[in-house]
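Quick log. Single chain, no ligands specified.
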Amino acid sequence: MIADPVPEWLGAYLGYLATQRRAAPLTLEHYRRDLVRLNRLADGRGPAELGVHDIRRFVARLHAEGLEGRSIARALSAWRGLFRWLIRQRGLLRVNPAEGVRAPKSPQRLPKVLSPDQASALLDAEPDDRLEVRDRAMFELFYSSGLRLAELVGLNVGEGLDLVEGLVTVRGKRGKLRTVPVGSHAVQALQAWLVQRGARDPGTGDGRALFITRSGGRMSPSAIRSRLARWAKIHGFGVHVHPHMLRHSFASHLLQSSGDLRAVQELLGHASIRSTQVYTHLDFQHLAKVYDAAHPRAKKG
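-> predicted structure:
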């Protein structure tokens, strides 16, 4: 089967993004996918021939094909960038036809979380070897401090981690620093890992990284995901667990206990309280289950 030829404008625009905007390879791949969608929907017409009514019709087509609102919004963002380039760099358009067009809203997805008992069962499992000592320290720190995966990957020995005071300082989104507490269980797990980590050959790998591989290199995000899934499977856990689930569980459990949404926002490093408010829905679900189980006049399913 012969693939459809890439139109000149698509290759030129991707080249502009790669060389002038220095877009990352993954970003370029996302743009390519969304611009190929535009080319398919345009059915032979170039982007300079499209109007706002066409873009609205394309959005409706994508929605009818089952594409979610978030994906359509991402496609629209790619299309707007293309049209801006056609206006500024090539002078082929005067008005951006995708400007002002909005994607349909997607239903809000609540993040999956572990129950407090599930979290305890997962983290109380005893490590069997040196690498599992490292794994347990990583997972305890995720759940204890609500770190993002990239924040944990970027931690270095002797930088930002104070086990005496029980604090960790990380660089979050947009380079913003925040300091969050480290619980006693995580402190103990990290102390155990630092003893094991110090036993490696100092002449190999990444000497700065807090969490390292068998060969001494810094742990990658994909390796951490894989190790957490392995840990959950080996220790008899019945669900797939990923790093962000531990962050979600941290936030949900903290909110259930404290009711302090602003504090949870600060600990998570959310710029807007709206990002944190999803956990109020999780908290309500928990309260609803308690109500249904305990209230004498609750509806019984």
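Residues 212 and 218 are 4 Å apart (CA to CA).
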